[in-house]
Amino acid sequence: MTQEELSVRVFKALGHPIRYKIVKFLLDEPKCVCKLNENVDFSQSNLSQHLKILKNAGILTSEKIGLNIFYKISSEDIANLLRISDEFVMNLVKKMNENIDNI
């Protein structure tokens, strides 16, 4: 797989609203699946599918501790990517609002 294909895989994984929400929820600390399931509005099997996609993209890692599986961000680079993306979007919204005000 090429670097470009891997980059696309990461952005595709982050491009789904639920997966984006999962990753944002994990930014502060690792969490068990039970906590992730409380934070989303769908079944455990659906959550598992989203987590699998995020793991396959290299965004998350998991560790079994006792009976629970904990997920965490694989790298601080992912957190930085989300921060940069959020900044970009905030600036974009600001520019859009400025353009509306100038009409």
TrEMBL record:
SMART domains: HTH_ARSR. GO terms for molecular function: DNA binding; DNA-binding transcription factor activity. SUPFAM superfamilies: Winged helix' DNA-binding domain. Keywords: DNA-binding, Transcription, Transcription regulation. Pfam families: HTH_5. Residues 1-93 form the HTH arsR-type domain. This is Transcriptional regulator. Signal peptide: none annotated.
